[in-house]
Amino acid sequence: MTSHSDLPIFGLDIGTRSVVGLLLKNNNTGYEILDIEIQEHEDRSMLDGQIHNVLSVTKVITSIKEKLEQKHGPLHKVCVAAAGRSLKTKRAIVELDISKKPIFEHQDILHLELSAVQKAQYEIAQEYEGKSVNYFCVGYSVLSYQLDGEEIGSLVDQSGYVASVEVIATFLPKVVVESLLAALSRSGLELEALTLEPIAAINVLIPPTMRRLNVALVDIGAGTSDIAITDSGTVTAYGMVPIAGDEITEAISDHFLLDFPEAEIVKRQLTWQDEVVLTDILGFETSLSKEDIIEPISKAIKTLATEITTEILNLNKKSPKAVMLVGGGSLTPNLARYIANSLQLPENRVAIRGIDAIKSLIIPEDIKAGPELVTPIGIAIAAKESPVEYVSIKVNDQIIRLFDIKKLTVGDGLLAAGIELSKLYGKPGMAIMVKVNERLISIPGEHGHPPRLEKNHQSCSLDAPLKDGDTIIVQSGANGKDAKATIGDVIETLPTKAISINEKMYTLQATILKNGQQALLTEKIVDRDEIIVQSANSIEEVLASLKLYDMIEQIKPFNVHINGSQVIFNNEDTLVKNGKKTTRNALVQDGDFLSIKMKSQPFITLEELLIHEKIEASYYITVYFNGESIEISKPLVIPKRGDDLLTEKSPIYAGDSLTITLNKKETFIFQDIFRFVDFNLTAQENKTLIILRNEKDATFSTPIHTGDHLEIKWVEKKSNKS
């Protein structure tokens, strides 16, 4: 009778193009390969690691099972893997306002990280039109912490305005496992153990002792290239690029006019033949060297290398220490060298690893120890030695099943239960928004309280370990109280000013208006109140607040209309601030000295108005008349108030409307002098009138100018003698 321990391990690698079935025997010192069967799918029944046609995949699995059973007896249990390409990777960023909560503790940061994971889980579900709880998180890595938009090493004990964390999280859809179980059941097989393909390959090539090294493992298949990263003793990230060996086959097919199966044969021959004979679709047979085939497809190989290295850098944020390539596609010529160059690694740091690298594995001579069998053998060994098991827990009396892929925590349980972590903390109380002098001020409410979190009726943290049978109770934290405040909370002190006006000291205190009504600092405020602190700023405002109305009248501008246009007359000699002339709108500061000249009459003269408006009232010349200096003038304006003719000394009152007609400047003539001097021009007997200008004869109409010497006199008439 055969003992249970003597039964071979049956492992299945269900790939995109083919299914590999193998039997392993555990001989206590290691494993021995007993048999291998490989069969390709008849149609596209697999896509990106997920079974799309259960019946078609079942047919291939059943065929492999029957072939192995013919040689080794009945097979009932099988080890399988969920494909690495089924893993969904998503980045997510979550921000948190920390302006009123300066201290950041470890649990706060963990809560923020898991909120980001949940956001990624939700976005994955949106992309694939499923529910977020139908995706299991199998791991996440923090890409960066940021404080106020700048990257920072740690958020612990940091203060600022906005904290954020960016994570990259990896999820496994439930449907992948469910479709696997359905295909196995239809094939008459029972699931003995489940693992993930990247974990399977890593377990046999990179033992835990090597995982402290930052290494990338790339499984290059037909349709996809699966990536896993190790560092600090664990698997830190998984990824996938939808490009692999088929792209190289297609490049060969396109360039050399081969059908796809023929191109696939040529690609495989490149790994071990220097000369390849190919027959194109037209029937022409050609013999080409290995280099002649590789050179035209180099672009496709470089593209594959670039896609792989871009995803490695995306997951790892830097070049790893080394890269291991497995899978049939890893044998693509020059691929390892291109990957090394792209990652700026020495070429000996990128290596193709075959099953001969698996320690304690006995390989029959008829089986080629290539890289394409690493994952199938890893599945059989890893699924047996470190299977992914289900963990059953309760979250708020709801039974939840988790994949025990990593060290599970209470946070993982809450994620699997679909509990929104971002809503666990109590909401902060309602803030009060008020306007103070047109500036919006927010008065925050009380902080929300942390959630109640228990594991097996004991208070716990989000990173507390989780095991089968644990019970979690989680309740949202209480909301914070609404904000309360008084006017004094938003206005610390009322500004005051001490100023001197005409050598008398005055103290000015600002006033408070709440919604247009005068208020005190102790009054309560509510949302949307408008607070205005009124402080007299200009000289006119200061005088009004001190009720010095007579002084206001002195500094008010004088408004009159000249020829229909308004004229504002400011008497600049009236107002002085700190020894300098100023205007009524000038700002008053604490300690200023004001001097206001008090006028005796409420009017100005026409002369003052004309000077202000720079209107020349008359023009003058100075002449000498009979030896005496005389100033004579002519008016240039005809000023009227209504029909009344005005003089330069006429008083002008605020609001007057004046008409001013401008005269042309005309040359003075001799007779103009008589308006300013008295001279008897009455004819005298026996005398004649002599008129001289600068000692030359002149007449009353002779033009005169400044500086002229004018002379007029009566002289005796000369007698006529015969």
TrEMBL record:
The SHS2 domain, residue ranges: 9-205
Keywords (A to Z) from UniProt: Cell cycle, Cell division
Residues in the signal sequence: none
Transmembrane in keyword set: no
UniProt-listed GO biological process terms: cell division
InterPro entries: ATPase_NBD (IPR043129), FtsA/MreB (IPR050696), SHS2_FtsA (IPR003494)
Alphabetized Pfam families for the sequence: FtsA (PF14450)
UniProt keyword Oxidoreductase, yes or no: no
The organism's place on the tree of life at top rank: Bacteria
Protein name, as recorded: Cell division protein
Organism: Anaerobacillus alkalilacustris
